[in-house]
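A favour, since you know our structure tokens better than I do. Just paste the record in under my message, thanks.
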Amino acid sequence: MRRWQRLGVDPGTAKGGYDVLVENTKEMLSDLRDYPNIPHDWDREVAIAGLISDHTIVGILGHLQYPHPFGAEVSAYGIRAAEIAIDYFEGDWRDEYVYLSDNGPRKLTREQCRKKLDWIETYREGLMWSLCFDLEEPLQRLLAWPGTDLPFDDGTFRLTKEDNKYHVILARCLRGESLSKNSRLVSGIQESSRIRPKRLLEILEKVLLGDTPGFAKKFAQWVNAFRKQEFNAQQIWLVFSIEATILWHVARRYGLELPEQPLELLDLIVRQETLVP
């Protein structure tokens, strides 16, 4: 049985089904096949973010072992997503980006782009693939991005300010800082009512302490909670856990012995071995 079948994916023929998703992704990748050249009538920020997401979709289709026309080497799409993410955050286009505001076109500087444009989904996708494939240069460049000066971004699935803060903390810790050095941000999450970032922070703490048993316990609790509360087999962005995938690879990066998990939970974590046909 293929992974997508175990997870309960229904291919579907209606709008939004996986078969339609495959065709839409194929069309978008074809439209942007000449990247970094982008059609002049396209919004460059939207196009680059969409291109990263489309590459990620191909990687997830490969992880799911779902029939698709993108070839056997889906790993290349994940690696490419991480590389394009660097262009999203560092590209020259940010020096003179024309932002379409409610009051009409407005040219933004690089500094204004940082204060204005979305970041969390593109960042998480780039981070996931960089960690998954041990891409050190893209990883370090991505980790330099999160900061408390960024705008709140609720992403695609109603993330909270505490979710944003968690990713600032995670980036700083992966750059070598301690949790104690980020005590104000940590306290802000711990004192909030938001369960998701609290749990993620607890897992990160176990990783930083090198506490393998503690990590195994907290990680399993998180993945089980995701399976019950957020998982949606018919939504490709919720048929796996991007946060669990990120933390799995963070733990691997820190040399923790990765815990054995039931197959139904491992299926939610994207790994190099799951991207092999």
In short: The mean pLDDT is 94. The chain is about 55% helix and 5% strand. The CA atoms of residues 36 and 120 lie 22 Å apart.
